[in-house]
Amino acid sequence: MTEAAGDAVNATEAEALRPDRLELGEGIRWTDRGIVLVDILAGRLLTAVGDPTDPLQQLAQLPVPLGAVAPVAGTPGTWIAAAGTGICLLAPDGATRWLAQPEADAARPMRMNDATADPSGRFWAGSMTYDAHEGAGSLYRIDHDGTVARLLDGITVPNGPAFTDDGSTMYLADSARGIIRRYPVDPVTADLGTPEAFVTVADGSPDGMVVDTEGAVWVAVWGTGTVRRYLPDGRLDRTLHLPARQPAGVCLQEDRLHITTARVGLAAPGPHDGAVFTARVDVPGRPAASYRHRPSASPPWEMS
């Protein structure tokens, strides 16, 4: 379904209370450890704690780009991360253990981008070239035993994925092409079925996404200064306007919608570009899922 931004109604006004301005703020998640987000190109993992006007706190910094993380269940302070050219486990002291680096030998310089855990506890992560070369990106799934498999290729800039509460449906944006596709997910194998076009955005690039408890999808639309809520049938329900041009990531913390934005690529960033915004919404969301290893297997981060 193709839509126009003018078909929407305004939502509650968003506020940017924290002083931080990020270069490329994305991967924001409400987890059982609080709100976390990343500044991708700086390799920074951040958390929003304390008073809503306090600065973000840094949890870790990697020497490579950091696309997104998910908490690892049963291991407090440990995260699984889409970073650099692959997937690693990030310990509380900042140490990393790489599970795989599938893009290390790619023909063009690659980096990981957005990522999330699904309700079954698997981790999904996209990759792209630094210059967003047409069709060079992929989507990877990290299974419970730590194995990494490429499920999709031919993507230019993958964002999301985002899952319905039951894990039966995955939404994935190919941002450079302006399209969000919807995939059925096999409940046992987590293999993907035949996709269908969910929404085509004509006036910007769909970026980070989150699904609320009614099954509607909130989408940060890069280049438009808007975040949009689409109903499960693809109809545009409402639009939230921001004083920042490049919304990049969204998450729901119950009835609060948190939005990251970016300054990267702007010749003259405005005072709110790169800020983290918060708005009240009518339909809540649930905490992001954790990555869970298979109980019968040794955790992949234990050294032998």
Brief sketch in words of this structure:
The chain is mainly beta.
Provide a descriptive summary of the structure in words.
This protein is mainly β and 304 residues long. Helices cover 0% and strands 49% of the residues. The protein has no helices and 23 strands. The strands form six sheets. The chain has a five-stranded mixed sheet, with no helix packed on it. About 3% of the residues have low confidence.
Would you spell out the secondary-structure blueprint of this structure?
Blueprint: E1 2-3, E2 25-31, E3 34-39, E4 44-48, E5 57-61, E6 66-71, E7 79-83, E8 86-90, E9 96-100, E10 110-117, E11 123-129, E12 137-142, E13 148-155, E14 158-163, E15 169-174, E16 179-184, E17 196-201, E18 205-211, E19 217-222, E20 226-230, E21 236-241, E22 247-261, E23 276-285
